[in-house]
Each structure stands twice: as C-alpha cells, then as structure tokens.
Amino acid sequence: MLREMLRKAVPTLIASGCLMAQCALAEPINRATVEAWLSAPPPADMPAPGTQVSGAELEKLRSLLPPGYFEFIADGDVPIEIQASGDYTPAPAYQEVTAANAGKATLRAEGGMDGYVAGQPFSNEQIAAAKPDEAGYMVAWNNVHRWQYYGYKVDAMDMIYVDATAPGVNGTRVPGMEGGGNVQRSMVQTYHRVYLNGLAMLPQQGYRVKAADADKRLFKDYISFSAPFDVKGTTFVVERSLDPNEEDQVSSYLPKERRVRRLSAQERADKFMGSNWTLDDFEAFSGRVMDYEWVYRGKKAILHVTDSREPRLRFGGKQSNVFNDRWQVRQCHVVELKPRWTEHPVASKYLFVDDQTFNSLMAVTINRKDELWRVFMPAYQKAPADNSTPALTNETSVLRWRGAIGLDVLDSSTSLAIATSKTDIPTMTDKQIERKFSISNLSGGR
After folding, report:
1. Burial class (CB in 10 A: 0-12, 13-18, 19+), 114
2. Residue 392: Cβ within 10 Å count
3. How many structural domains comprise the chain?
4. Which CATH number do you get for residue 163?
5. Residue 86 to residue 95: CA distance in whole angstroms
6. Mean pLDDT, to the nearest integer, of 177-205?
7. How far apart are CA 343 and CA 267, in angstroms?
8. What local confidence, expressed as pLDDT, does residue 17 receive?
9. At residue 391, what are phi and psi to the nearest 5 degrees?
10. pLDDT 10s digits, 329-364
11. Measured between alpha carbons, how far is residue 440 from residues 116, 209, 260, 428 in Å?
C-alpha cells in the first residue's frame, strides 16, 4: 500500500505529549465559535494602507482572521502591515471570452454544469441572485475556471514541517523562519500544473491545446521530490477529467517500489507526504467539485497576502507560521463544503474565494467532532505587467503562488510550503506538455 510506504518514508512528528500540551490550545475551538466569527462585521476603523498593526492594536483585526490562527499572530506579536487592496483584473482575452459567453453556463440539479465554453462561468450578479446551494456551486465552478493562463510552475519549493517548542526554547530553523518552532522534516519538490481546456487565449483551437488527452482532461499536475535522499525521485502526476463525475487519475512513482501505481480515491484524504495538506488542500482547495456539497454562506472580508513584497516568504510568530509580509483586505465569497464520502475525516470546509480573481485565499476545516481542525492559507505575488507581446500580457496578468501555510490547530503543528525559485506562468507548446506530463515517462525523472 502506498500510504504505508509513505508512512515509513515520512517519520511521525517528534514531540512529547507534555510539550504539545503546553503549545496547543487549552480547549478545542468548536464550530459555533467559527460560525460566530463568520458573522462578525469588519472593523469600523480599519487601519490605513501603509500602517503596521502590532501589540494590543492587533485585536481590532480579529474579525479578519480566523480563530485558531489569529492567536498565533497575537501571541507571537507579529506586526501586520496593511497594503491597499489591489485590482487584479484578468487578461483581456479572458474578459472578452467571458463577455461573449455570458449566460451560457447553467447548473444541473446535482451541481454539475452544462453549456460552459470558456471564461468565467457565472457573474457575481448571478451568484447574489441564486439560492444558497446553487450559488455555492457557481462559486465552485468559477474557482475551477478562474484565469490561470496555461498554469504555473515552481522549479524548487521547500516543504517544511514545524513542531512547537517549549517557551524560550529555540529549535532547528531554516531560511525564512524568523520566529519559533522546530523543523522536524524538510523536503524539496518541483510543482507544475498545466491546463488543457477552457483556455480563453485559444479560441481558434476550440479553447484547448492539441496535446494528447486534451479532449478529456481539464488539467494535469506534476509533483516530484528531489531531497532528502529517502524521498528523492518520488513523483506524482494528477490528471483531472473534464467529466465532473469521473475520479482523478493519480499516478505515483516510488523509487523503492520501482513501479508506477495508482492512488485510490480514499487516499486523497490522507496527509500528503506526511504534511498537514491532502491532495484536495493545495491552494486551499484543489479537489473535485462533485466530491462535495457546496452551500453559499455569504461574503466576508479577510486579511490575505495577495501581493507579497518578499522574493522568498518570511515567517514570524511562536511557530514561524505567520506571514511577515504585507496584507490586503480582500472581499470573499464564503462557501461551506461537505464531503459526500461519509467516512471523510472532514465534516465541513469553509472556503474563502476572492470575489474578483476567484482564487481560494483561505480554508478552515471542521472535523467530525465539530472542532476547528486545520487552517490553510496560500500567498501570492503580482508580477510587473509586461504588454510587449500577447504572451507576456497573459503571463504577467496571473497572480503567482509563492507559498502556503497548513496549520493543524489541534496538534499545534505547521506545514510550510515556500517557493525558493521564481514562479513561472509559462507559455506551453503541445510537445512540451506531452513530454512533461506523460505517464509512460513518470519513472524517468525530469
């Protein structure tokens, strides 16, 4: 079994029970507390852009950051720099295709979608006018089909697993960790997602590439680990079908097994390589829409690192899990996801989706005991616009993923993902796509 091999390859967290008891919350935060936070209004006197909020003043930001995570900011006294909320209008090609196909997409009774061509399937006006269950699926499909050009690539990314430490004790740290905590495990990987369909810039090709499988695949993910030695060469290719009811094809290569095998659907709910993320938690949400029931819960303003100032993300606080960066107030659609698989360990996931970009900015999960379990938050960066060519206009219009926090509130552990190379939004040829994402070459490395 793959999950058993990964369990052996990735050691369990090394921390004593008394240490975890010192650092974890005294009482688990329940769903009612999260629900109360969802309904809390934004601050009446929001600090002006360019100011830093720290110390006792952080309390005024409580309604903009989720319970369980806010405490790491306040207790660690990490200053929050406020940045003006940016305008991240997608590329002209996406806007034009969205306008040309407005009103064509419709929802099926079970949440699927008919009539979609390309661009953004549903407008914010349609979402506001729909019933909560319909609006939830509209947000879901807008998130799936947000403007991403061909997708993004990070050649080098550190995955760092951080344990709590006792007060006053400094553990092992890595570049970027400027607060407390102890690095229990670190790995290096490359990540590349490519979209094959719904591509607004390819109207002459029916909005899709001409590579193999483009008639049945929405996107493919390529994930490969290069360090340390015990996971080097471990590689995954995730293929998302255009059919919303078809399961993902997840193929993995583990050097110790020397063969390619498929992951089962249930393994998607397991910790990915021992981290606090599952395959469905990348970028806060990367799962299949039809695996969940979606209910719209309204709109909420949150703080988010949408345009990082850092070439490499920096983290402060007692567990080095708070972005030491500039934060924007972003208006989000809030949707509650409930897994259709009754044995899934998550009871609900509250997903916060930016109402302009439809990127997932944050997710808060509730376990089967109705306790706050995990908080996921990616960070992005805007590249300087370059309109010298159509390709560069498209490449520089996409917000670039730069890293993420995966916090387990219950066991007070953090997983950090930090891009250590630049994030590219590359223009891809059909041949490049076929070579990079070929299952037949999965064991050959890249």
Report:
1. exposed
2. 15
3. 1
4. 2.50.20.10
5. 18
6. 96
7. 12
8. 34
9. -65, -45
10. 999 999 999 999 999 999 999 999 999 999 999 999
11. 32, 20, 9, 20
Neighbours of 74 (CB within 10 A): 19
Pairing of strands 106-107, 80-83: unpaired
Q: Residue 186 class from Cβ within 10 Å (0-12 exposed, 13-18 middle, 19+ buried)?
A: middle
Going by pLDDT thresholds of 50, 70 and 90, the confidence category of residue 16 is very low
The H-or-E segment that residue 83 falls in is: strand 80-83
Banded pLDDT at 259 (limits 50, 70, 90): confident
Q: How far apart are CA 158 and CA 154, in angstroms?
A: 10
Sole residue written with tokens 């305008």: 87
Instruction: Write down the pLDDT at residue 9.
Output: 42
- At 297, phi and psi to the nearest 5? -115, 10
Residue whose entry in the numeric block shows the structure tokens 């949440």? 111
Q: Between these two residues, 43 and 20, which has the higher pLDDT value?
A: 43
**Residue 177 gets which letter from DSSP?**
B
Nearest by Cα to 395 from 404, 406, 382, 408: 382
Q: What is the largest CA-CA distance in the chain?
A: 63
Q: Fill in the amino acid letter for 333.
A: H
Domain holding 75, by residue range, is: 2-444
Query: In this structure, what token pair is assigned to residue 420?
Result: 């250590």
d(CA 316, CA 324): 6
Closest by CA to 442, choosing from 215, 147, 217, 237, is 237
How far, in Å, CA of 182 to CA of 115, rounded? 51
User: Per-residue pLDDT for 168 more than 90?
Assistant: no
Read off the pLDDT of each residue in 121-126 and give the average, rounded to a whole number: 98
On whether the CB atoms of residues 223 and 190 are closer than 8 A, the answer is yes
Q: Give tens-digit pLDDT for 390-421.
A: 999 999 999 999 999 999 999 999 999 999 99
Q: Is the pLDDT of residue 95 over 60?
A: yes
**CA dist 12 → 6, 183, 276, 374, 413 (Å):** 11, 13, 12, 18, 12
Q: For residues 388 and 431, what is the distance between their CA atoms, to the nearest angstrom?
A: 25
Taken as a whole, the chain contains a residue count of 446
